[in-house]
Amino acid sequence: MRLYRSRVEGIARRVIQDLVDGEHIEVLPTNRLEAVADIEAIMIEYLKRDHRLRDAVREQMASLRIPYDEYGKTRSRIAKEWGHPMGSQIERYLSSQFVESFMVSPYIEEVFSDDSSMKRIVQDILREFDVDEGALRDEAREKIKNIPENSPEYDIRFDQALREVRIRHGLITARENRR
User: From its phi and psi, is residue 87 left (phi > 0), alpha (psi between -120 and 50) or beta?
Assistant: First the structure.
């Protein structure tokens, strides 16, 4: 799973709505926005940490002159050192964080269900908001099919095409694209 900033608000609203509708938690209507904001804050903090991880990977690769094709291995190793969830671990991590927050949030009146039931519901919601990264990459490759693979130009153009695809699908904004 990859979490996009553009999906955070929708996920948070859906989590609170589904758990309230299913009578797993009670949230007063006057506290609904704050409960959603708490869930958003958890995801935003995860994204900030993920961004710091990306920066650390780039710095380490540059300082140790690690080739770019080792990015995934380097990222996995540093993420493991940091205890930062990746891939399918993200769903479990976020669902645990959400459920833990329900227990201490002043905006959640009551929790009626057990942790594992709520975590399953949250994980299902997160999966619904997940993006098929493979399909995005295929779409980007299709845009640059006239450029020979394994060339420096291909790598640059592929990154550009992938960003354009993500913008078109509403996953990132043009402002985020400049990073």
Answer: left
